[in-house]
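Standup notes, structure subgroup. Blocker cleared on the nicotinamide-adenine-dinucleotide input:
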Amino acid sequence: MNLLVTGAAGFVGSAYVRTLLAVGGPDAPHVTVVDKLTYAGTRGNLQLGHPRLDFVQGDICDAGLVDKLMGEADQVVHFAAESHVDRSILGAGDFVRTNVLGTQTLLDAAVRHGVGPFVHISTDEVYGSLESGSWREDHPLQPSSPYSASKASSDLLALATHRTHGLDVRVTRCSNNYGPRQFPEKVIPLFVTNLLDGRKVPLYGDGRNVRDWLHVEDHCHGVELVRTRGRPGEVYHIGGGTELSNRELTGLLLDACGADWDRVAYVEDRKGHDLRYCLDWSKARDELGYRPRRDFSTGLADTVAWYRENRAWWEPLKRRAGAA
Ligand code: NAD
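Run returned:
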């Protein structure tokens, strides 16, 4: 079985491919990764040379390349995306191109070649913001940022391809991921690497925005359950179960790095900043047996330790992104 995985030189996709390659046996898939290697993608995230891995550097908007790769694929897991909200606020063109047109290019080719399941990876951000309670999978999509609007658009295109063409599409929506190899522009690796360098950390507004935290390995486990046990045309939530305000998260990261609150710089709030996200993931629990397995405090301690021990991974990325 040849599994085409898009965007697996990035944070979540590379963790997913590592879990696939870690398990051998007759049912272990061959994995073909296609990734454009934007600023967020790193060759070093991939186990190049592994006998069950092929890597193709390429763009999911390249219809010719996508058609060729899809013709050789049996199933797809689609992670590739422009993924940083702040960048989408500065300019949304790349987000529409990759997240919307790139996804449609993949879907068109999958229909032509009859490839499925096609697991489309999405986000809780498509629902907008909620004060209390949690979202179920049929909640209306009310995205706030260009990033989340582009992801919501791609979700609708993916589900429409199931309805129109009968393609076996499955959509996952997850909470905020954390773990090793996350690009150091996202809040946890940005704060940890700044603190390790003796620098300040920028906290948006009053820090009361709440996010649910999911270890990347739990996310990958959920994606694999959806690929192997999910139903066509369904949306599944993959939640983490650890809700924290950004202020609470900052306190934990300061403690983990041995720093005080004088290292926090309060900065103007993000435009359109969603107050709170919260997924009801009982459908994935009841249907697929999903539950997050990583305890947040040990997961966070392990993550901080990883960044402490792997400066050679993140220092060039920070320099390249102009963040250092
Ligand atoms: P990331 O930014 O770390 O990685 C994205 C990868 O996609 C990079 O390797 C990049 O080179 C590649 N890519 C971008 N444009 C491409 C294109 N046109 N063609 C081919 N490759 C391209 O992102 P991530 O955090 O790993 O997120 C992966 C997926 O999970 C995304 O779809 C994202 O929306 C979703 N998601 C992530 C989180 C999170 O907390 N990280 C939460 C919810 C959903």
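Discussed briefly. The pocket of nicotinamide-adenine-dinucleotide is lined by residues 6-7, 9-13, 35-38, 40-41, 59-61, 79-83, 98, 102, 121, 123, 151, 174, 176-177, 183 (CB under 6 Å).
Next: hand off to the docking folks.
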